[in-house]
Amino acid sequence: MAKTSSIEKNNHRRKLVAQHAAKRKRLKAIADDLKRPAEERFAARLKLAEMPRNGSAVRIRNRCEITGRARGNYRKLKMCRNQLRELASQGLIPGMVKSSW
Q1: pTM here?
Q2: Does residue 41 carry a pLDDT above 90?
């Protein structure tokens, strides 16, 4: 089980990303548009730099919804491999059966 502070920190980052997504997208579009004057693009970059770093989507860590484990996660299930195996063995995941050959 991951530390509660790590899980909460990641949840806080998710909230910040959702909160600042529209503004970041608008500023990135201005900064990347080569048709605009250089001063305007530079000003957009400066405004982006002033925004909170945790508002960037790349700082979100994929974590298991059950344990908070950061490694070995399946994106589609939002679950780590350990919990996936555990729940599959108990028959709690529909359509997943223990393999035998």
Answers
A1: 0.82
A2: yes
Tokens of 68: 């908070």
Tokens of 26: 């608008």
* Residue 68 region by backbone torsions, left for phi larger than 0, else alpha for psi between -120 and 50, else beta: left
Q: Where are the domains of the chain?
A: 1-61, 63-96
Give CA–CA dist 83/81, Å, rounded. 6
List pLDDT tens digits, range 5-38: 999 999 999 999 999 999 999 999 999 999 999 9
Distance CA 96, CA 84 (A): 10
What pLDDT digit, counting tens, does each position of 42-51 carry?
A: 999 999 999 9
- Top-tier CATH class for 1-61: mainly alpha
